[in-house]
Amino acid sequence: MLIIMRKELKLRINMKATAAAPSNIAFIKYWGKKDEKLRLPANSSISVNLSGLKTTTTVKFSKEYKQDKVQINGQVNKKESIRVVEHLDRIRKLAKIELKAKVVSVNNFPKSSGLASSASGFAALTVAATSAAGLKLSEKQLTILARLGSGSACRSIPDGFVEWIAGKTHQSSFARSIYPAKYWDISILVALVEGEKKKVSTTSGHKLARTSPFFGTRLKNINRKISLIKHLIKEKKFREFGQLVENESLEMHAIMLTSTPSLIYWQPATVAVMRHVRDLRHQGLPVYFTIDAGPHLFLICQNSDLTSITERLKTGRFIKKIILNRPARGIILTSNHLF
Ligand code: PMV
């Protein structure tokens, strides 16, 4: 009986799978955790998937492999591999297999630059590896599992506009779609600015949040903010929405700036573009910024203003490159394997 069951399990495992995951940008941010190990966030967050920033990952389990092999953007990096192998171990445990894996992953955007490659990266790894291991998990369970790899990764699995419910336990902290990608005609322009590679990882940064004297105040108001942003998205009230998103990003950076030690993710060019965005608003163009743990900016506008805003942004000296994004669907499995 046991032998038959093992055989069936083997047949169920298609051994190799590929997933393509969008990155996401949070309108209400996740900064600080209430449980380090389970990656339970201090507060819920709201995001949208980005059509132009993507990670594609192929995972294959095979008895031919003597150890896990992890290649990211054509390179083997020991430090990054450790986190990937830890995640593979979680998936092997769930699938009750011991096979080693080969993982090949590519981003279409610069990594460790504040463009959240860990979000799309761990989302793609979770879905490719569980599928290759023959696990059939619901979307909710996939988001719970992805969260253990990197918190924001859970938001790259559901479609479009997404809420990550903070929860108090492992099973109650998950992400779900609140509106499909096509719900709202907005664009998110990633403005890449001059800047060094990120020095403090978000994993280390989250630990510092509680050292800011303002963190308690942030948490006191956050649920009200979550309700408000959901209402503004629902009603498509763009200007109020944009203002709230921009203020929220500045609040997260206020926590970072006032932590001990203090974190400054901005570069001079970051501040220059913030000012440029505000000038554009004074000229009557509704565009708002949000910034993650890096120097680059995510500029949000309505599609009807996209051409005029892009043209004006190009006149500034500080933006090296603009990547256009629309709200995107969540993760997909594809047969375009990377090996
Ligand atoms: O998922 P992590 O640990 O990389 O944290 C992401 C944190 C921010 O990008 C700064 C904010 C967010 O909600 O995405």
From TrEMBL:
<keyword id="KW-0456">Lyase</keyword>
<dbReference type="InterPro" id="IPR036554">
    <property type="entry name" value="GHMP_kinase_C_sf"/>
</dbReference>
<dbReference type="InterPro" id="IPR020568">
    <property type="entry name" value="Ribosomal_Su5_D2-typ_SF"/>
</dbReference>
<dbReference type="Pfam" id="PF22700">
    <property type="entry name" value="MVD-like_N"/>
</dbReference>
<feature type="domain" description="Diphosphomevalonate decarboxylase-like N-terminal">
    <location>
        <begin position="21"/>
        <end position="175"/>
    </location>
</feature>
<keyword id="KW-0547">Nucleotide-binding</keyword>
<keyword id="KW-0443">Lipid metabolism</keyword>
<keyword id="KW-0444">Lipid biosynthesis</keyword>
<dbReference type="InterPro" id="IPR029765">
    <property type="entry name" value="Mev_diP_decarb"/>
</dbReference>
<dbReference type="GO" id="GO:0005829">
    <property type="term" value="C:cytosol"/>
</dbReference>
<dbReference type="GO" id="GO:0005524">
    <property type="term" value="F:ATP binding"/>
</dbReference>
<dbReference type="GO" id="GO:0019287">
    <property type="term" value="P:isopentenyl diphosphate biosynthetic process, mevalonate pathway"/>
</dbReference>
<dbReference type="InterPro" id="IPR041431">
    <property type="entry name" value="Mvd1_C"/>
</dbReference>
<feature type="domain" description="Mvd1 C-terminal">
    <location>
        <begin position="188"/>
        <end position="314"/>
    </location>
</feature>
<comment type="similarity">
    <text>Belongs to the diphosphomevalonate decarboxylase family.</text>
</comment>
<keyword id="KW-0067">ATP-binding</keyword>
<dbReference type="Pfam" id="PF18376">
    <property type="entry name" value="MDD_C"/>
</dbReference>
<dbReference type="InterPro" id="IPR053859">
    <property type="entry name" value="MVD-like_N"/>
</dbReference>
<dbReference type="GO" id="GO:0004163">
    <property type="term" value="F:diphosphomevalonate decarboxylase activity"/>
</dbReference>
<dbReference type="InterPro" id="IPR005935">
    <property type="entry name" value="Mev_decarb"/>
</dbReference>
<protein>
    <recommendedName>
        <fullName>diphosphomevalonate decarboxylase</fullName>
        <ecNumber>4.1.1.33</ecNumber>
    </recommendedName>
</protein>
<dbReference type="InterPro" id="IPR014721">
    <property type="entry name" value="Ribsml_uS5_D2-typ_fold_subgr"/>
</dbReference>
